[in-house]
Amino acid sequence: MILNVVILSIQWSRLRAALFTFLQECIKTSLLNIVTESLVALIEAECNAIAFHLHDTTEKLSPLLLIDLSSEDVIFPCGAFLRVLADYIQMISTRVMNDSSCLDEILNNVSSSLLVLTAVEKPVHTCLGTIHTESIRYIDPRPTVAECWFQTLSNILTLMDKTKTSPRRFEHLEQVLFLAVKLSVQIMFFHEIDESSINHQNSHVGMSVDGPQTFAMMKFLSYCFKIVGMNTFKFIALQFQSIIQLDVTHDISENHFGGTIICGALFRAFSGSLPPWIIETAPELYFSIYQACGADLDFFHSIMVMGSVVRIRGTSSVFSHIRVGEKLGGCLVQSQQIQQLRSFLKIDADWKQLKSAIKAACGGKKKTSSFANKPTSTTWQFDRI
Fold first, then answer.
1. Less CB within 10 Å around the terminal CB: N or C of the chain?
2. Which domain holds residue 205?
3. 5: Cα separation from own chain's centroid
């Protein structure tokens, strides 16, 4: 039985690798309708299949998930069809750099890729946002899906930045970006932070964050805050007001509430809910949040302080592991050190120095962390399959 499953897995991987290679060749000219429809069908089918298995309470999982096919000779990671879309957008960005005279034509081509993005957003987020914890019984297919999804969105935002184009030019794009920020914040809150569980990766719900998907997520957040701006704060406020209730004595604006939630999530991330090597993203990430605040140092500092000080009055069942009365930013964040950052935060500040300050304020170096070493991005070369 096991031998048959292994053979089937290898054959299935070869078929999908062939499709991936074929689609990579197709996008070298343009994103034809047939390619767009194919990508939507393949991505939806893949994500729906993953979500179905993860939501199956009987745990009658597909045998394909039960085999450890860790060798690159036989495995074809999930998310590769999203990678095709990411590569197409990257190709468009390269064309813009080489020939800015064709900008309007190129931006019109972007619309085809956005049709795919908007069509698959829901199944992708259903797949990645499920609270089903990674099991030791199977190889979780979600991390490479997450890596490709966030990479695709980063490529879109990079293109918007290069062409000085607002995401609002394209219908539904801003909504897709907002929902991806919401997913990122949820992932940071999924992982528990306390003195006893910080070094145990099983103290969380949802997919593993120990891999390149987390770097891709943080890179996306940096681009999004920089380009989309404070509208992101307002969206997060509207989404999280019914999920996390803050213990505040006075009303705060939607922008302040959303910024506080984001900063609290990041403090949890740097305290241990995400791997310790993610601290490398702190300077760029906080600078992009500062830009989203309209370069208002006082507002930026206030949401950082609020994210480290405010306590949680209640949460929905999604975050049932978070205790009432717990700090939004987790028990390790040192509020006093965050408050003292105001003297550092100046217009001409060296933001690279913020890395050490944030690390110290979030519990210091995680010497005994059970997370793996800093990962490399997934290699999408399958000539040997």
1. N
2. 191-372
3. 32
